[in-house]
Amino acid sequence: MANSNSSRSGSVPSTARYGFSDASRAGDQLRRVGWWSDTGPGESEPIVAALSRTPDPDLALLSLDRIREAVGSGWAELSRALADDIGLRGRLFGVLGDSTAFADHLVANPGDWRRLRSDTVQPSTLHERTAVLLASVEADGDGVPGTEGGPVATFHGPEAVSALRGTYRGLLLDVAGNDMASVAEPSLPTMPYESVAANLSDVAVAALRAALSVAVAELQRSGVDEVPRLAVIAMGKCGGRELNYVSDVDVVFVAHSESEIPAATRLASLMMRVAGPAFFEVDAALRPEGKAGALVRTLDGHLSYYRRWARTWEFQALLKARPVAGDEELGDRYLEAVQPLVWTAAEREGFVADVRSMRRRVEEHVPSELVERELKLGRGGLRDVEFAVQLLQMVHGRSDGSLRSKSTLDALLALGDGGYVARADAADLVDSYRFLRTVEHRLQLRQLRRTHLFPPFDDADALTVLARAVGLRSSGRNTAAQALVGEFRRHGNRVRRLHEKLFYRPLLEAVAKVPTAALRLTTSAAVERLAALGYTSPEGALRHIGALTAGMSRRASIQGTLLPMLLDLLANTPDPDGGLLAYRKVSEALAETPWYLRLLRDEGVVAERLAQLLGTSKLVPELLVRAPEVLRLLSDTSALAERDPMEAAVSLRSAVARYSEPQRAVSAARSLRRHELLRIACGDLLGLMEPTTVFGALSSIWVAVLESALDVAVRDVASRSDGEVPARIAVIGMGRLGGNELGYGSDADVMFVCEPVGEADERTAVRFATSVVEQVRRLLGAPSQDPPLEVDIDLRPEGRQGSLVRTPDSYLTYYRRWGEAWEAQALLRARAVAGDRDLGERFCRSIDLIRYPEGGLDEAKAREIRRIKARVDSERLPRGADPATHTKLGRGGLADVEWTLQLLQLQHAHEFPELRTTSTVKGLRSAAAVGVLEAGDADELIEAWTLAMRVRNAVMLVRGKPDDQLPKHTRELSAVAAALGYPAGVDTGEVVDDYLRVTRHARAVVERVFYGS
């Protein structure tokens, strides 16, 4: 025929449509096997279609042609069976379309195709597979291979090796056929990766037992009659029942007694020499001292080494230890003895760091040109999953037996079920691990060679075959290849991301430091440990722990993981008991917040910082239960401590502007203020914010609340008067608000200014503005669980008896005719903060002549200010307060420093514009710069003022309520010290001494500069 694809009638039935790349050659081959004619496949179409679905149809067809020649006259039987048996078709074609090695095996063993028939009962248990291998070497005897009285092989030497190799390949063929069947025949069931790995592991264990039987025969031929008691312990993937098609099998050998070691060593060596050429390399390098150590040791020898010399990685390797061959009782004793060492290894100094270092070393040994294609050792490879899972197992498995699985996937699922890993993360890792292991299996099937290297990304042919082998189908070759590369990179990136998230989780280091016994203490032992940690009420702490971990819920499980670490973290805070109580309250309040515990578990820095906050502050937990979203910021230092105050203020005003109903609008303002207060408090307590930044941020959020409340009130009052707004209103900040220096518990000292709009008269404008101010005070002064929003307008003309609002002219008339020295002094800190900006600025400029009097302050008014200050010192200090440690009115405190600066401003600001500032710190620096205050004196005053402000804030944070007195109670004083940044365990007397020293120096300056002493 001129053209193998042409019929006499001129029709062209082509093999190319079935995926064969060389249509002419495929046509010839199909004709030879009897599945193609001039009109196409005919009745053989199901067979040809199945061939077309294999990973490499050309390879499958070539292999079948070779098998046809090998079976000779038996081809007709095989061909009929393929036509009738869809199971045989799927298993045989699936294997031949991916593996030249199994094609070679079937050519050498033509009858083995019958193993793949649907009616063939394959050996499927470990016992059955062992029996098949033993039968291949005609082993006689009952019992356990490798033990006294166990089956001993009749074959020996090369004859035994050859028999075992062929039988072992047949058993592998069984597994591969079931594994690949659904690739060629999609209607057949898919064999899960876990089943494939478990079956391969069982075949390997059966092979070890058969090799041991042959080795016993060899030992006896050498003149050793008594079989030494030897246990073979599988390690690595064989131990975890997750073996590949081709892999070394890691083992450790254990002898019963010292006297048996020579014979046991010889037996072990013989077994390894048999297994190598027959099955796979048996690698004993994981034994004590590695390749330099004795091949066989007694159980006591192993234990002695592990207790004295073993390194971290050796305990990690023991995770998967499993007795598989030889003396069962000895193997069980070995496992029972080493397990306690495995589950306390995490307590070793630097354990977590050692495991991480080992992973980095493994990764560094991958050649740079192969790192992207390395399935096993590269970034995002199988070792990333295994190292992360093993580290989590060894840290958390000390107290949770459900994590002590030898299988990577079982352990990963248990970690997810137990709450140690997010369920979504566990599911993603399981999915990616299965994918990568399946790719590894398909690569190894090709030639039954040990490989973990993904094909080059530009090798479209190899990638397409591999893509089809793992189940990725497409219409074009390049498309399949591209899809596979995309999936490989997606899974690799996901594995690496989750590996870094879990493997480098700070929680691991914190939990690892908790002694194993403390993770599962009896009640009495727990009380002793809690007392030792510094809890003053261990019984109370136990009640909190019991409440948090009660039940079988996932929430309780995660709490059980977190609490050992949190207890240690809280023990390093000033108030462990109060911190644990606060943690319980926060946890109960956020019980239905789905991300709360996940955040603590997955972001170690959040747990560490939260413990520090709760063990120091009462204000933080009170705010946290109503602003839990701030918890998320604890892992992001910049978001927590570096937010621009103006950004927060704009956000608050924008949110409030969306509400027309006053109460809802103010509720929104309170909520956003709560969030900001908590954010600032956390950044402050954690030492992430400078004091001046804290003062400015607190002032900014207060101003935003005022601005929002004013807008709401104006809209509300106007809505009740035909929508008319007859007045512009400005809010003038006074006191520390004017100075941009508020603390956590500060009121807002303000004055309100208005002026008529359009045709409105002054009386109408003032009446409208008064209604607005009353509404603002009513809205902000409503009861709340948050720190109060008190709007204090007592600094207005005539104090509490005066009008709530005045026009600029009215203010000026009052100050010019009746203003007193202290009122001019109060105006020094007046600053437009909210409302009509132009009106506010004009008002502030108009009062400059009052607060910066031409010619300065005369001596009579200076004496008056000094008398008022002296009266304040003696009359306003609360009864029982200590004047040495009262931050506001005490010696060298806030009032001393502020009044000193304000006197200098009244005396010299007309001459030196630099002094015209509302900021205390800036004002003091300016006073030194222009020469009205010594530089050293300015430094002393600034240090004292800043310290007093910080102490005042710290007391508010610690107690949850404002107080101007430095605490005397040791625990509260320790908490204040922590809030101020003193190291843990500092002597509280040192804190008090520091405060007294700084304020004493400041008081000396006040006496000299303010009082003229």
From TrEMBL:
Residues 1-20 are annotated as: Disordered. Transmembrane segments: none annotated. One of its GO terms (molecular function) is magnesium ion binding. Residues 188-335, 608-844 form the Glutamate-ammonia ligase adenylyltransferase repeated domain. Its cofactor is Mg(2+). The keyword 4Fe-4S does not apply. Residues 1-14 have a biased composition (Low complexity). One of its GO terms (biological process) is regulation of glutamine family amino acid metabolic process. CDD domains: NT_GlnE_GlnD_like. Its EC number is 2.7.7.89, 2.7.7.42. Residues 515-1013 are annotated as: Adenylyl transferase. GO terms for cellular component: cytosol. InterPro entries: GlnE (IPR023057), GlnE_rpt_dom (IPR005190), NT_sf (IPR043519), PII_UdlTrfase/GS_AdlTrfase (IPR013546). Residues 358-503, 884-1008 form the PII-uridylyltransferase/Glutamine-synthetase adenylyltransferase domain. Keywords: ATP-binding, Ligase, Magnesium, Multifunctional enzyme, Nucleotide-binding, Nucleotidyltransferase, Transferase. Residues 1-507 are annotated as: Adenylyl removase. It catalyses: [glutamine synthetase]-L-tyrosine + ATP = [glutamine synthetase]-O(4)-(5'-adenylyl)-L-tyrosine + diphosphate; [glutamine synthetase]-O(4)-(5'-adenylyl)-L-tyrosine + phosphate = [glutamine synthetase]-L-tyrosine + ADP. NCBIfam families: PRK14109.1. Involved in the regulation of glutamine synthetase GlnA, a key enzyme in the process to assimilate ammonia. When cellular nitrogen levels are high, the C-terminal adenylyl transferase (AT) inactivates GlnA by covalent transfer of an adenylyl group from ATP to specific tyrosine residue of GlnA, thus reducing its activity. Conversely, when nitrogen levels are low, the N-terminal adenylyl removase (AR) activates GlnA by removing the adenylyl group by phosphorolysis, increasing its activity. Belongs to the GlnE family. This is Bifunctional glutamine synthetase adenylyltransferase/adenylyl-removing enzyme. The gene is glnE.
